[in-house]
Specification:
The complex is a heterodimer of chains A (about 230) and B (about 240).
Chain A lengths: L5 H19 L1 H20 L4 H32 L3 H6 L5 H30 L8 H26 L5 H29 L5 H26 L3
Chain B lengths: L8 H5 L4 E10 L2 E11 L4 E5 L6 H9 L6 E6 L12 E4 L11 H10 L6 H10 L15 H13 L5 E5 L7 H16 L3 E5 L3 H4 L5 E6 L2 E7 L3 H4 L1 H7 L1
Parallel strand pairs in B: 3-7, 3-8, 5-6, 6-7
Antiparallel strand pairs in B: 1-2, 1-4, 8-9
The chains are: A mainly alpha (about 230), B alpha/beta (about 240).
Chain lengths: ~230, ~240
């Protein structure tokens, strides 16, 4: 018998998480309802023209996604706390990083599904038309979503050991995510308004993703085994 | 009362499965374990007894690698690096360590995968050994407490570990099922496994126990062959007193 490899455990853990979510729908339901509320309430609160919409939509979309991501992360990790299941993983020879990768990819899938569902609603409620190329919005969405979930997954493991974990996660996550939030909002707004090239912000997002993915992978084992 | 362990002649020529040297564990200012030293030889079944909060589960979690001792050293299966021997150690916690939304077979398949095992037939066989039907499609969340405990035991032994650590495996299990589980542990011990069982139900383990260890207020206070009569029901004895 041989210790399992990183890819095999990542695949198995991701499949297990997707199956659990498919059965419970805990994460996707809470994310969806929260995002719907944000879209509807803000559309009633403001009555923006198409031009104003283009300027505020970047911030609105990513704030909604940020909070929705936190909900998904809390739900995903809450499952590992029930019945102390995480102990079974910790005593096994499975690579700790496999759990990190599986949870990050799982959350990435959930948030991406949410974005696909919410995009038509944002377009409809805020009368959005992109002046810049739409493919850039797709790239920004992928980079920004990864930035949110990679840090979120890492800090969620720290916060689940605390008493007020639902509050603790945003408190830890927001300050560290400020460069990414600035980049994703600015890049989205620039594409929607077509004023300047969003390339700098996209590069910043890409660098942020690479740096934080690397740091999280290096430190995850310590965080997972923290008492 | 302090307890000093003197290895016998057999122990002197065999590497202990678990060696503890002055293990101390503090949670804040509370000392859960206070300088526990002992050696446990392979191929034996040890029953750990003690009152609630005595430090039994803490000791087991330290041996499993889930907690680091505040002071002291331990060696498990010949090494101090517990991750190196994770493949050879099985752990069953106080909680079932199972996903409620999955059925027993799905749980087994996932946890077996963490040990590099991709063998559905093996998972089904292990479930059968603890008296469960692998074809049962009910989710674990809908199981009785006894069925969960048995599934949890199956999860802990699916990779055929050399060292098995069980924390209260019989809690909420009916007497007949508990005896079946104890018998299975006896069979595993006869196959050469080293087994530690933390329990409050000493009589269930009496037929198969090789030694019992008593932990009192974080200290190892007694170590006896089998389970002596006076340790079988300490609570009943206290009531009589």
């Amino acid at each position: 018998m041989k210790a399992p490899g990183l890819l095999a455990v990542t695949r198995a853990t991701l499949a297990k998480d997707l199956r659990l979510e498919w059965r419970s729908k805990d994460a996707i339901n809470s994310m969806l309802f929260f995002s719907l509320l944000v879209v509807v309430i803000f559309s009633f609160a403001f009555d923006p023209t198409a031009e104003v919409s283009r300027k505020i939509a970047g911030g609105l979309v990513w704030v909604a996604m940020l909070f929705a991501t936190i909900m998904a992360l809390n739900q995903t990790w809450a499952r590992e706390l029930r019945n102390n299941v995480m102990d079974a993983y910790r005593v096994s020879p499975a690579p700790p990083n496999a759990m990190f990768l599986a949870k990050t990819i799982g959350s990435f899938i959930f948030v991406t599904i949410l974005e696909l569902l919410m995009t038509p609603l944002f377009v409809m409620f805020y009368n959005l038309r992109s002046i810049g190329p739409v493919w850039q919005l797709v790239v920004i969405a992928l980079l920004a979503t990864w930035a949110l979930v990679v840090n979120g997954t890492f800090f969620a493991v720290i916060s689940i050991h605390t008493r007020s974990r639902e509050i603790m996660l945003p408190l830890i996550l927001f300050p560290i995510s400020i460069p990414a939030i600035l980049a994703m909002v600015s890049a989205t707004t620039l594409v929607l308004t077509g004023e300047y090239s969003p390339l700098f912000w996209m590069q910043l997002l890409a660098v942020y993703d690479v740096v934080f993915t690397t740091v999280c992978l290096v430190l995850f084992e310590i965080v997972l085994n923290a008492e | 009362m302090s307890f000093t362990y003197t290895p016998d002649s057999v122990a002197a020529v065999t590497t202990p499965a678990v060696s503890l040297f002055e293990i101390t564990k503090h949670f804040g200012r509370f000392a859960a374990l206070r300088g526990v030293s002992a050696e446990f030889m392979p191929g034996k079944l040890y029953v750990i007894l003690g009152e609630n909060g005595a430090g039994k589960s803490t000791l087991l979690r330290i041996v499993a690698g889930l907690l680091a001792p505040t002071r002291g050293e331990l060696r498990v299966l010949g090494t101090g690096k517990l991750r190196e021997v994770a493949l050879r150690v099985g752990y069953m916690g106080h909680a079932p360590l199972l996903y409620d939304e999955l059925d027993a077979m799905e749980n087994m398949r996932y946890f077996a995968g963490l040990y590099g095992i991709k063998d559905d037939a093996l998972c089904a066989t292990v479930l059968g050994r603890v008296g469960l039907d692998a074809k049962l499609r009910r989710r674990v969340g809908q199981y009785s407490q006894g069925m969960r405990q048995r599934t949890s035991l199956a999860r802990a032994i699916v990779h055929d570990p050399e060292l098995l650590l069980l924390d209260e495996p019989f809690s909420n299990v009916d007497v007949a099922s508990a005896k079946d589980m104890a018998h299975l542990l006896g069979v595993m011990r006869d196959q050469g496994k080293t087994i530690f069982v933390v329990t409050h139900q000493a009589p269930v383990m009496q037929p198969v126990a090789d030694e019992c260890i008593v932990i009192t207020a974080g200290r190892l206070t007694a170590r006896e062959k089998g389970i002596p009569r006076h340790l079988l029901s300490p609570y009943a004895a206290e009531v009589r007193r």
